[in-house]
Amino acid sequence: MTEAELSKEISAVKAAEEPRGPGRRLHGAIAHKLGTDILSGKYAPGDVLSGEVAFAEELQVSRSAYREAIQVLTAKGLVASRPKAGTRVLPRDRWNLLDPEVLGWAFAGEPDIEFVRSLFELRAIVEPAAARLAAQRRDKADLKAMKTALAEMRRHTLTTEAGRAADRDFHAAILHATRNQALMVLSASIGAAVNWTTQFKLRARALPRSPIPDHTKVYDAIAAGDGEGAAEAMNVLVDLALEDTRSAMTS
Amino acid sequence: MTEAELSKEISAVKAAEEPRGPGRRLHGAIAHKLGTDILSGKYAPGDVLSGEVAFAEELQVSRSAYREAIQVLTAKGLVASRPKAGTRVLPRDRWNLLDPEVLGWAFAGEPDIEFVRSLFELRAIVEPAAARLAAQRRDKADLKAMKTALAEMRRHTLTTEAGRAADRDFHAAILHATRNQALMVLSASIGAAVNWTTQFKLRARALPRSPIPDHTKVYDAIAAGDGEGAAEAMNVLVDLALEDTRSAMTS
DNA sequence: CTCCCTATTTACTCCGACATATTATGGGCG
DNA sequence: CGCCCATAATATGTCGGAGTAAATAGGGAG
């Protein structure tokens, strides 16, 4: 990679800076590049990344920045470094595939169809169960949050950013009502990644989005304390999203 | 390297008399110390870790080693650093609670009861669904792997390390049969953490372990291709484990 | 042919300096 | 008197070099 490419990558990162998000630094950009390269298969498991000095020279960055990037990848289980042996890409089953950043890297390039299917399958397992728990444990504040999110979704459609934000709020309210931290973390990252690709694919092909799924049924079941009904209604929602993506990918 | 060795290494560093520190993965030891401190609540969300130089001096390590440790924590969503603003602990919902290392840190000290309950709940959701998928997709190699693991479990009991290894093999074989990478990663880390604490609690209180759960029913259902049966049998297993832990923790 | 020892390669750690970004402060202007 | 902008202070980010430890490879001795 040339220095021009790198600085372009950096400025691109700076442009996408979020208000509360972690401002990406140089080592962040390097980690992003190496992460996407690994996830895309450019470096296969078992490959050794040429030594520190060589790579740092090639990328025109100091060893410090390169090393800090390697620490990030190591923390996510993508690589492991040993003296003399170099830093090698670990086998896929060691990767932290549920890490939000790793998910982002996986979807940065051409996402593996099988992996996307895996995520949807996991979502289809988790989300209905979350709705069932939410129906059993929600309080008035949770219901109020869902209600306002629903109203927002009706005003805007899912084709606008405001509408999608309301959709995220709705699902986040359900997760919060489960009182389950692990479920919240998992579902939030999966949902974000899945929605991201779905949206990307749909926008790229300009597909007419299927009619707004009936989130109201989910809300009604949760409000009524009907766990089974909530799970079923949520199952329908997930299946709809799956259909959207499947039609967008297989065509 | 065991946890005891790590913390010993840390304390050796903190009380260091000689400037020439130990040579084994110093930043990893620092990350472990800071990680457990954060997970245990010693540093609350919003707290700012006193500056790089101050902390590096306090721990008697160089800025580089401290910074690389911070990169690891940043990669796991525990902290965020900004120039002039310092490094502060992020709110809990930003933490990567499903990261194996973070789970280890959470269970290193006094694990939060509510969090353990969350993990068991998630496990009760995921594992039966995994058994159902395994029943639909397993091939002969999967069944063979499960069979040998079952035989090993019968020879040794769950009180021996060999027996527990066979138990892990059995569950790993089921996960592999699902052909779902995301499920494999998730369930593997949760299972490891949960089994770890369960084992720890049981050993500490010298509780007589309940009779070996009937893994055979799960195997039979999977071999027969009976998804519902496999899910139900696995549900029984998870409930049994939950009972063991509940009785160990509430007493 | 086997085993041990040396030597090289590579990652790990430390250091001191400079660059950059953000916040705080103080002065100028309306 | 109050608001706004420029400047300074401070902590993180980046850099390159030096020295240490460890693991593999190669050569020598038995």
Automatic annotation (TrEMBL), chains A, B:
Domain HTH gntR-type: 24-92
Keyword Transcription (UniProt): yes
Transmembrane regions listed in the UniProt entry: none
GO molecular function, one term: DNA binding
InterPro entries the UniProt entry points to: GntR_C, TF_FadR/GntR_C, Tscrpt_reg_HTH_GntR, WH-like_DNA-bd_sf, WH_DNA-bd_sf
Signal peptide: none
Keyword Transcription regulation: yes
Region Disordered: start-end pairs: 1-26
Keyword set, alphabetical order: DNA-binding, Transcription, Transcription regulation
Protein name: Transcriptional regulator, GntR family
